[in-house]
Amino acid sequence: MRQRIAGSGLRVAGWVLVPLGLLLAVGGIGYFFTHYQGATVMSEAMEPTYRQGDRLVIESIDAGEVRRGDVVLVDVPDRYQGGPVLQRVIGMGGDHVVCDGNRITVNGKPVDEPYLMRGEVNPATGPYDVRVPDGRLFLLGDHRGNSNDSRFFLDEQQGSVAASGVLGRVHKGSAAPVASGALGVLGVLLALVGIGLGIGGYAAGRSARRPLAAVPPWATA
Fold it and tell me: What's this model's pTM, rounded to 2 decimal places?
């Protein structure tokens, strides 16, 4: 009787852990692949922040989630034929962006840019003064001397690009991707443990139901 109870308990635990583990695995892995993607830096335009060949994690976001200072992966096929590019958001819809050659101001406030290559704010072009249209973004590379960014397209909607073209932004930390990956691994482990418990419970049940061998008469003499 005790073996039957133990076997039944193991099977029940297995029935619980297997679907729970599969749910966690699918949820964790699914969340990672729907919210994040990998990207390789293909140019020197974002140096020294991100160097050519660096592998980055891109977090999928909506246009409404973009913030100034974000480094975004943006697709502008009419401007960049080689595919999506990585640039930094300087101005958003309605912003007044001004560069006098030595510094950039947005809506009259100086922008602190410690990430610039050699501290050069605008080595490749002259001063500019733009008003970013609604629903669009003014983007620059961190390596201003080697970045084909909004400054070179000022006659096209003030150099801006559609915010809807943003595919995602660089994820600076690792907590969320690691957590979702760990959740997926935990789910797989739970499912495997559940399968093991189920097999153990089945074996214990079979052992409990097996009839005892008859005792030979001479064994009791």
Answer: 0.69
